[in-house]
Amino acid sequence: MTNTGTLSRYWMFSDEYTQNPYPFLAQLREEQPVCRVETPDGVRAWVVSRYDDVRDALSDPRLGRDIGKLYAALGKQLGQEIKPADEISNHLANSDPPRHTPLRKALTFAFTPKRVRGLRDGWEKVVDDLLDDMVRTDNRDLVSGLNEPLPIITIAQLMGVPDADWPRFLVWTNTLRRVDASDPTGIIAEHTRQLSDYLKALIATKQRTPQDDLISALVHADEDKRLTAAEALSTAFALMTGGNDTTTSLLNGSFAALLTHTGEADKIRADWSLLPNAVEELLRFTSPLINSLQRVTLEPVELCGVKIPKDEIIIISLAGANHDPHAFPDAPSELDITRPKPAHVSFGHGIHYCLGSHMSKALTELAIRRVYERFPGIRLAVHPSEVRYRPGLMVRPMIDLPVRF
């Protein structure tokens, strides 16, 4: 274990943690498996970091995801009323049963592996076109050239967004991903409004003229599986932002890991049948979401022997769980693409398990194969320690990934 010293209450928001969270999480698992932290703006929370505790917490009905209750708890701490943007935040991931149940039923019905498989030929063309653009423009950054645009374009395809509108989505989502959350220029608010207005118009079009896409399926399903226009809007917004960020993070982490651990990449290139299991291991090793969406205690709970009152914020460390030696006793800090069925928690666990997991994995498999087939000599253009990240509570956005072809 790397000794990080006594952890300050702000450790989770330090640059050291942002660049390499794993020494901090190793210390946490050993010394404080349920640890009190504080954000720079004064919000206090509890971090859960051991694998078994993380799985239990992810499926514990006493730890709620209801956005209204979560914001009420935050407001109570800060001494002010905080209201969520209901129009775009009232979606599946921000709800608990009973409301969660029909929303998940509707999405499960519409967001099927069969629908995803039907899009794969189109994805391959998108990947090839993006790689062509990288060559044409002499762009040697995999983040901006491939890993950021690919998920948003494929999600736009899934939802039935016309091809001509993809560039607008790239601008909007890049703004929401990159800009200072305090929004001093107002650009986040403006691009949020533009994206919301576009999605409202798209949903109205699909209601009038359905096509073979996810939005049409959601608003034209049987009554017990149909979303209202408002529910479809918040769902589409969540896919365009959260779903996009998760897959971008997986692609960034996967390529960084394979370009660093070249022996593991060589194993895959020698036997492409290893690729599906390799992606599962990359999900464990890279933890595209370092933390899950925050929970709020709906009643007093005890986690790993720590008593926590009602209305407390819980941060569940997926990265901590994915590197726990008790769950992965064979060198959890090493990448091993032949590790037998790595039971990671990168897509969650329980009723909030990510419905888009099959799409994210399929897209990552395709991108890895096409990149290595197209550029067999690809390698990092910088030392692995020079790959840098921006801070984020859920995702560590990679700044760039310079390569040589």
UniProtKB/TrEMBL annotation:
Q: Is the keyword Heme assigned to this protein?
A: yes
Q: Which GO terms describe its molecular function?
A: heme binding; iron ion binding; monooxygenase activity; oxidoreductase activity, acting on paired donors, with incorporation or reduction of molecular oxygen
Question: Superkingdom of the source?
Answer: Bacteria
- InterPro entries assigned: Cyt_P450, Cyt_P450_B, Cyt_P450_CS, Cyt_P450_sf
Which keywords does this chain's UniProt record carry?
Heme, Iron, Metal-binding, Monooxygenase, Oxidoreductase
Q: Which family does it belong to?
A: Belongs to the cytochrome P450 family.
Its recorded name reads Cytochrome P450
